[in-house]
Write a structure and sequence with these properties.
Blueprint (H helix, E strand, L loop, with lengths): L9 H17 L2 H4 L21 E5 L1 H4 L10 E6 L6 H17 L3 E6 L4 H13 L4 E4 L8 H9 L4 E4 L13 E4 L2 H16 L3 E7 L5 H17 L3 E8 L4 H14 L5 E4 L2 H13 L9 E6 L2 H8 L5 E4 L5 H12 L4 E6 L4 E2 L4 H4 L5
Parallel strand pairs: 2-3, 2-4, 4-5, 5-6, 6-12, 7-8, 7-9, 9-10, 10-11
Antiparallel strand pairs: 1-12, 11-13
Helix pairs in contact: 1-12, 4-12, 5-6, 7-8, 9-10
Length: 361
């Protein structure tokens, strides 16, 4: 069923309003309730307005799935990466918390440990265990086709979160919930231009290859720097694989090979924090001698910003639980779900970092 972007249906508008309301009410509690200071409600994930959605709408009838009451259902959640960083920890916990809150009969959870073959087998195993609805955080944009086909064969709807898959919406999966990653890269570039005055030599610590997050965050940053700050030269692009230790290792090498680097754009906070450690070890002052801008919004990065050792953080909110289950409930109520449901992400800088720690994860 094709729907043009501009004439959004009332159903879609209601969906996004409802998901935003639910998210505001329930997202932040488990990750922020023990924090001192700050406003934990700022951590809530919200969908943007209906005008920010795109793609065809997908309904239960169009998808061809049977009706389902989530309170009497088995739901599966497939996590892509080991929970060794705050984003994945918060994401999984948010799914668990919301499933419990709304009374899901049984929640199955798996972790692919950054192995595509394991994520495929994880999803197939959950289907064998009777999963009737799946929430999937894909490891890569490509490669999950066997798992998606297995779900389609059993008429089990799949909702993807935080990374897109290069498959057909409303056939291989229902919808994508997540951030505008190109926009995140663009906002990171704007922050970098501000803190550097648009001049200097910047290195990019790329995320893992094979997914749209890395591709889009790179494109947004590079294009914006080229358009707005020709005096800010990108002198290196090297993957840190979204890992702190790898980010530190790459930054140590870059400091040796390109000692005149004055700024670092890390495509997640973990790599940025690794870079911070390497910069200190080299006898330089992070946040001053070498500016650091990254994407995520983790507590440690925002704390480093508050301490003056970081320069800006663009949020990428991992608290998908309320939005994912609200979307599922609307889907099973017969309403159309947009192909892309884009969430809002805030920004941390030196002016708001201390007061915003309660909303970080």
């Amino acid at each position: 069923m094709k729907i043009q972007r501009r004439p959004r249906t009332l159903a879609v508008a209601c969906l996004l309003a409802a998901t935003a309301t639910l998210a505001a009410a329930g997202c932040a509690k488990s990750e922020t309730s023990n924090n001192a200071g700050g406003d934990s409600s700022r951590g809530a994930q919200e969908a943007k307005s209906p005008d920010s959605t795109s793609g065809s709408g997908c309904s239960l009838e169009t998808y061809g799935a049977p009706k389902l009451d989530l309170k009497n259902a088995v739901v599966g959640f497939s996590q892509s990466e080991k929970e060794a960083n705050p984003f994945r920890i918060a994401e999984t916990q948010s799914i668990k918390d919301e499933a419990k809150k709304i009374g899901v009969k049984k929640l199955l959870t798996t972790n692919a440990q950054s192995q595509l073959s394991k994520q495929i087998s994880d999803i197939q195993d959950m289907l064998s265990q009777g999963a009737q609805f799946l929430i999937v955080a894909p490891l890569n944009s490509d490669g999950l086709e066997p798992a998606l086909k297995a779900a389609a064969a059993k008429k089990v709807p799949v909702l993807t979160i935080d990374r897109k898959v290069n498959s057909t919406a409303c056939k291989d999966y229902v919808a994508f919930l997540g951030s505008d990653f190109v926009e995140q890269g663009k906002r990171a570039a704007d922050a970098m231009i501000k803190v550097t005055g648009g001049k200097g030599k910047v290195a990019i610590l790329l995320g893992a290859s094979g997914n749209n997050v890395t591709t889009d965050r790179t494109k947004g940053f590079v294009d914006q720097v080229k358009a707005q700050a020709p005096g800010l030269e990108i002198v290196a692009q090297q993957t840190g694989e979204f890992a702190r230790d790898k980010g530190q290792q790459v930054m140590e090498q870059l400091i040796q090979s390109k000692p005149d680097i004055t700024a670092v754009y890390a495509e997640n906070d973990e790599m940025g924090l690794g870079a911070l450690t390497a910069i200190k070890a080299a006898g330089k002052k992070p946040g001053k001698d070498v500016k650091i801008v990254s994407v995520d919004g983790t507590r440690n990065a925002v704390q480093a910003l508050a301490n003056g050792e970081y320069n800006a953080v663009i949020e990428s909110n991992p608290r998908f639980g309320p939005l994912a289950f609200a979307t599922a409930q609307k889907f099973y109520a017969g309403e159309e779900i947009p192909e892309n449901v884009i969430i809002t992400d805030r920004e941390y800088d030196e002016a708001n970092a201390k007061d915003s720690l309660g909303g970080a994860y």
